[in-house]
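Lab meeting notes turned into a lecture example. A postdoc, R.K., suggested we walk through two folding results consecutively so the class can see how the record format repeats. The first protein's sequence and structure tokens come next.
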Amino acid sequence: MTGANPEETPDRSASDSPLISRRALLRGMGAGATLLGSSWALDACGLKKSSGSSGKKITIGFVTPLTGPLAGFSVGDNYIVDTVRKSSAFSKGIKSGGKTYSVDIIVKDSQSDPNRASQVAKDLIATNKVDMIVVTSTPEVTNPVASVCESQGVPCVATVVPWESWYFGRGAKAGTTFNYTTMFFFGLKEFGETFIPMWDRVPGDKKVAEMFPNDADGSAFRNGWPPLLQPKGYTGVDAGAYADGTTDYTAMISKFKSEQCDIYLNGPLPPDFNVFWKQAAQQGYKPKLATVAKVLLFPADVVALGDLVINIATDAWWAPTMPYKSSIDGTTAQQLADSFTQSTGKQWMQSLGSTYSLFEVAQNAFTSASDPHDHKDVADKLRTMNYTGMCGPLNFGGGPVPGVGIMKPVGVQWKKGAGKFPYDLQIVDNSANPSVKVNGDLLPTNA
């Protein structure tokens, strides 16, 4: 077992990192549309290497945005890595094919930049000879990493990215599948099952203001929401695709006001929403219920908005009160959250659960494989995995496409904090996941 990797220390502060541009995103994702064919071609020609680290060691690469505008997603990631390293399942080695292998986890900072994410993935494969890469947090990070892994024939597991953004955003077509890359999270169907029941509880004109940027998530939302809205009697008002990093949203706000949009829906980068929401308040746009995706998921982003965040609703894929526990050592969701707060002094965040599950999935795949260095065997185990752990049941063979495991989120709202932290996240709707108990009242964002 190795100690902390130097790259676990952020390379630069979030304020020093540039906002992600559309051009950078496309460069970082690379020729996604050709990946399926290129990986098959390499296999057919016998050119693909099928082994990673040699001997009795398993090497796992972990790519996460420790710095940059997406850094809020990764606040708990180093804690989770340390926790996993100390667990007996990892510290005593992983058993695979009748042998026990020591485990090395190497952490790399994507700096919230697609190009950087792609490069560190290449480095992990070429230099560190990793047996698997696990990656988290938005298509800006997950997609370029997955694309590199697919082209190089290295098993990869991604999370915290809508599956449509991960799948179609990398050039896949309906009916096709990736050979080496898998993921778990949820998609537009689950967003609809989470958000629309909350909308139905707030009387209004059923017009939905849509703030979708010109990026992978924005494109997936723009294409996926109309089929969900129309059967429920809602009308979407799309103010147009905008560039990440936009600083003036006056035209968008004016359109939402003129259309009298009582519901607000989005999918932007966190800094962009911060600017938009403050401008909306200044210009008098006050939707009855704001439901946001990709933003206000974590305490750091919430504090930056102050009381403007109260009663904004979002989705939660993991919370301490969920009835889940670790497949590694039986730790409950509540115990994981409490331990994080006691150790760091920081408020729990839902990415704790998803990052933890990345390593559950990795351990499960390696223990199921006959040889942890056989990339194809490990990838095949990932694509058909069906287990229950820190994020609940995950069935990679039973999702919307092969290799995608679906989580069931709940609807939550930010409320004024009752304890040591200024704001608390309360579960206000469990329509999409009835196994989770509601512990708060759904209130209008603006009365």
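The second example is placed directly after the first for contrast:
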Amino acid sequence: MIKHQFSVLISTYKNDCYVHLDAALQSVMHQTYPPAEVVLIIDGEVSLESELLIKKYHENYPGIFKLVRLAENKGLGFALSIGLMECSYNFVARMDADDICCDNRFELQYLFLQNNNDIAAVGSYITEFISMPGDLNKLKVVPNNHQNIVKYSRFRSPMNHPTVMFRKDLVLDAGNYKHMPLFEDYYLWLRLINKGYKLANISQSLLFFRFSNKALQRRQGFNYLKKEFHFFNTCYQESLISFGSFCKLLLMRLPLRLIPYNILRHFYLNVLRK
């Protein structure tokens, strides 16, 4: 197997289903461009089934899986910041522990970054599913060129986080991942843009994203609204967004956190998706 010079960065924790993790890792290792390294952060305790699965991959792919264990759960931003420092290669692909890559994802993104030296990070569309890829048939589209990404970023995250491949040195220059619960990725994209780095998205779906009712339910209520306010206020204080954008964001998102779940689900699946 020819391995290509990039790392894959994944974090897993106790709530991840080992069956979903297995499907994610299978999709990572059966690529047209397989990675030279997979950095897997084990964020606190995980189930026995997950431990056995991780052990199997570590043994079956000697020299590829680098395991980083955190004694207790620290959250995604902290886990990824630690994991990124452990990545041996400058090209780093993000992957979540419950999604499934298309088999040519890494090839397309690796070649894109090689051929576009001015791009700091490249993502793609995602196809959402519930149990099996294709069962929901919903596509989350994001803008493809930097100019439109900048405009889009004023009101929504402009990149689908688990689809992204980026340049490690530039992400570190922008401050690495930071602790910003539920908004670690959006915060990073805004800081990259503020640094003057360019972002891009490939105009096709390269990943099947597992849609979860529980995850969507977490986007409701006062606790989520507090985290959202903290994130947007931090971005405003750091001059990542304007005061006008800050006000518009709060006005746009406040009703979404307070409406009944069925209406929110319809909005996400039928208004924000294709």
